Structures are given as C-alpha cells and as structure tokens.
Amino acid sequence: MRMILCEADFAIHGLVNYKLFGHSVWLTTTHVAMVIVTIVILIFAIAANRCMKKAKEVPTGFQNVVELIVEMLGKMVTTNMKQPKKFLNYIGTLFLFILICNLSGLLGLRGPTADYGVTLCLGLITFCMIQYNGIKCQKMGHFKALFEPIPLFFPINLIGEIATPISLSLRLFANMLAGTIIMALWYGIIPIFIAKLGIPAFLHAYLDLFSGCIQTYVFCMLTMVYVDDKM
C-alpha cells in the first residue's frame, strides 16, 4: 500500500508584509492567533459580566462556570500571596490568556506561546512587577539585597535577577513548542490514513490540554512567588 506523506510544518509563517518607517514588517500566524485569543477572552468577559449582573441566588449554567473560575483563581492567589486583592485581576488575566493560548492548538491554531516573542514579553512584564514591588516595599533594601550576604556576591545576585524573565519565558516557550513540533511531525510524517485514528486525540489531550494547563499554572505560580518574595 502506498503511504501518503507530507512535509512536517511547525514554523511561524508570514502572512502579510508591509513597510513601516522604511522597514519590512510581517503579520504572522502568531499575530492572527493572538487576535483570535484576545477576541475569545473579550467575548467571555462581556458574557460573564452580563451574566453576573443578572446573577441568581442559586447559580445555574454559565453562571456556575463563571463562579467556578473566579473561585478557583481567587483561591490560588489568596493561598500564595500576602496581598491577594492587589494582584488578583492581573494573575487572573494572565492565567486565562496563557491557558487559552496553550489550548488554541485544539482549534488548529499554532499556539502563540510557542513563539518566544510572546513568552519573553510575558516574562518581562513579570520582571517589571517584581522590580516595582521590590522598590516600593523595600525601598533601598531592594538594591542592598544584591550585595548580601557579602558584596562579593553582587554579580551572582544580579545574574539571578536578570535570569528570572529568561527562565520563565523559556520554560513556557520550550514546553509549548515541543508539543507543536510533535503534533506537526505526527500530521506531517505519519501516513494520513493512520493519522486520522485515535492517537492524535490522545496527543492533543496530553500536549495541548494537560501540558497546557500545567504550564499555565507553573508560570502563574512562579510569578506569584517571585512578586510576593519582594513584598
């Protein structure tokens, strides 16, 4: 029996090219996926807002889903942070954004978190929050800590601070890219008549659903730990 093969494709593709201040700029598959994810979050937020305005004392249907998500995120932040109310909105938004990005592979999209440009930005936002809260809460003690326990440790402590956004972003990026590559190899190299069997569903369940949820939780948990450590 002849085996039908196609080329494995897991790269980021440029869709539209345009000139900006004399430079060539591409609209890529990552941008399209992020727009779709943003639209999904906005639709969910609007629907949740309208639902809670008409909330019933005994929740049913969509209200149950909204309350479950809010309760879960609230419990996660309250358990791990000293001032949970201050960071609940940010951590909740971060959690939903990363989760939907990770699960977008189930919709046939190339997950935005499999692009290092996206995860690095998320890591840098967390880094800015860490430094801001460190300076706000510890004042000069935030900088003094770089020279502890002895001034000789300054280079090591400085590298540790700088490594935070890099480690955060690389962890999420590498795990999601690995899943994207595995699924692309499966669909691209394995014969089509075999690829349509139940194994892709199992791979999607693990690489997109299970791994996606785990990586979302890990990123948010580390963000809370790093920020809370400076307060």
Write the layout of secondary structure elements.
Blueprint (H helix, E strand, L loop, with lengths): L13 E7 L2 E6 H25 L8 H19 L3 H20 L12 H23 L2 H4 L9 H36 L2 H4 L3 H31 L2
Antiparallel strand pairs: 1-2
Tally the beta strands: 2
- The portion of residues forming beta strands comes to 5-15%
Query: N- to C-terminal separation?
Result: 65 Å
Average pLDDT metric: 82
Biggest β-sheet: strands ordered side by side in the sheet? 1-2
Q: How many helices in DSSP terms?
A: 8
Low-confidence stretches are 1-5
Task: Describe the protein in words.
- The protein is mainly α.
- Helices cover 70% and strands 6% of the residues.
- A hairpin with a 2-residue loop joins strand 1 (14-20) and strand 2.
- Helix 1 (29-53) packs across helix 3, helix 4 runs antiparallel to helix 6 and helix 4 (116-138) runs parallel beside helix 8.
How would you sum up this structure in a few lines?
This protein is mainly alpha-helical. Helices cover 70% and strands 6% of the residues.
Comma- or semicolon-separated keywords:
single chain; 231 residues; mainly alpha; 8 helices
